[in-house]
Design brief:
With 440 residues, this protein is α/β, with parallel strands linked by helices. The chain is 18% helix and 29% strand. It is built from 8 helices and 29 strands. α1 packs parallel to α7 and α4 packs parallel to α7.
Length: 440
Amino acid sequence: MSTAAPRPAAPDHLWSVDEHLEDILATVRPLEPIELQLLDAQGCVLVDDVTVPVSLPPFDNSSMDGYAVRVADVAGASEEFPAVLEVVGDVAAGQAELLHVGPGQAARIMTGAPLPPGAETVVPVEWTDGGLGEGPVTGMRARSLAPEAAAGEVHVYRPAEARAHVRAEGSDVKAGVRALEAGTILGPPQIALLAAIGRGSVRVRPRPRVVVLSTGSELVQPGEELADGQIYDSNSFALTAAARDAGAIAYRVGAVADDAETLRSTIEDQLVRADLMVTTGGVSVGAYDVVKEALSHVGDEDEPGSGVEFRKLAMQPGKPQGFGSIGPDHIPLLALPGNPVSSYVSFELFVRPAIRTLMGLDDVHRPSTTAKLVADEALSSPKGRRQFLRGTYADGEVRPVGGAGSHLIAALAHADALIVVPEDVESVEPGAEVEVVLLG
C-alpha cells in the first residue's frame, strides 16, 4: 500500500520517465500475505517455499493396462511359444490389499495401480491374449463384461525387462525436495502439483484489486447510440483488460462526466474495493480537466501524506501524468492521460509495474531486447523526450506500426512491441539497433 506522498517539485519541472516510475515503486508496497484455498490462489504469488512431504508417485505403479509378472516367467516368450501364466486376480488403482505374484503367476493390473509384491515388471495387455485364449488383443475388456479374464490363464507373447512399464516411487519428485519457490505465480500446473502433494491451501500475496475509471462527458458506452461530438469509451476497457493481464482483479467503472464533485464522490465510493485506483483523462491543462481539479487538493490534515500530484513527463506519448494516494488507507492512485495510445503506453510503463509490485514480484517490468529497425524512412523524435512508438517484433527485427499520434488506436491493436527512442536522439535511421519493449 502507499506509505508516502510523491516528492514535490517546481510546477514547471519536467520529470523523466525513470524519476516518475521510481517514485511510484518507492511508494507502492506488496500486499500482506493471506492463506487461500488452492483454486482461490490461482494467479497469486507464493510467499513461502513449498517442500514435498511425500514422494510422487508415492509407490511403484503401472504405466499401462496389462499384467504384473516375474521377468523369468516371460523370458523367451513369443507368439509361437507363449508363456502361459496363472492369473491370480486384479490389481486396480486405489486398491489397498495387494495380491502376491509368485512363480508362474500374473496379476491383471490397471494403469496407476501399485505393483504387487513378487512382480518385477508389467506386460502390456496388447502383448497377451487378455486371458481370452483367442490370440493377441488390442485392449482389456471390462471386468463386468468378462469376469473370467481376471482368473484362469493368460498367454504372453513377448518378454519384458525388469521394471518395464513401471513408474518408480519418487520418479516425479522425491520427498524433502523443494517443489515450488517463493515468488512463483500459481498457474494450473503449480496448482496441480500442490494438490498432488496434499496441500489444500497455501500462503500467497493476493491478486491486487484495481479500479479503472475513465472521465469525459463525451464518452458513451459501447452498444449505445452516438450523438454529435461523442465517442465510445475505449480506455476503461483497454486498461481494465490490461490490469487483468498483469495479474490483478480489475473492476471497470463507467465513464464519469466532467464534474469534479461527481468524480471525487465516485472515487471515494470505489475505495472500499481498491488496492490501486487508475483514472484516465482529465489530467492535462484544459478547462475541463476535472481529474486535476478533483484530486489536486484531496489530502488534508486528517490524512497526512495523502494527495495526488500532477506532473509533466519528458515522454511522448503520455506527457501529463498524475500520481499519489487517496483516502484514509492511502490507496495509490495513478492518473493517466485520456488519449488512447497515451493511456495504454502509460499503463505499460507505470501501472503494470505497480500491480506487479503489489503482487510481491521481484521482476515487475515487461521484457525488453534490442532489434534492427526495419522502416521505409528514418524515425523522428522530439528532442528531450523519450518516445515510445508502436511496432511489431519478430526474429530480431522491429517494424513501426502507424504514426506517432496519441489517438491512433487502430495501430495499437496490431502492435506487440514498443520502440524506445531515447531523449537525446532526434532521428533513427533504418537498420539501426533500437531498444524494444515486448508487450506479449
